[in-house]
Amino acid sequence: MEYNEIYLLGDSLSAGIGHKDVITWPTRVNKTNRLKIIDLSKGGSRVKDGLKMVPKIENKNRPILIALGGNDWRFGKFNNIKDYQNGLERLLSSLCIGRRTVIMFEIPFPPLEYQLLKSQRDLIRKYNVKMIPKRFLSDVLFIDPNATVDGLHLSNIGHERFAEKLISILS
Q: What is the pTM for the complete model shown?
């Protein structure tokens, strides 16, 4: 994959959680001048919130990077997996039009959430979305204990590692 400019639909993993001294991975990627990320992320966003970000996409031909889904599991506990499936399907169907490239991070859901992972993979396949495997996020989040500020949200070390890994994939 090689891209010059890409839209990002994300949650706090991309937007950060407000620590003033933390430089987020989208900002770090933009500083490299190798890839421009138009960052539409917002902390706390779920898959259904991605639909609110879609109208902000000005260039309909640019690729889209989706980094959503963690909050659906974290806060929703998937009492109704259909809500997640329907939200993701609506999001992907609104984005996967024409020849636009859509890329989505596979969420490293806990092992007992097999149906959730299966839903995400099935919809990625259905809409021909390129998938960045869950090992990408796992490598950033779980290998270095200093990569997060609270076990989930990225520290400067985590944002730097994320940016470096993403640039190597997308540019």
A: 0.93
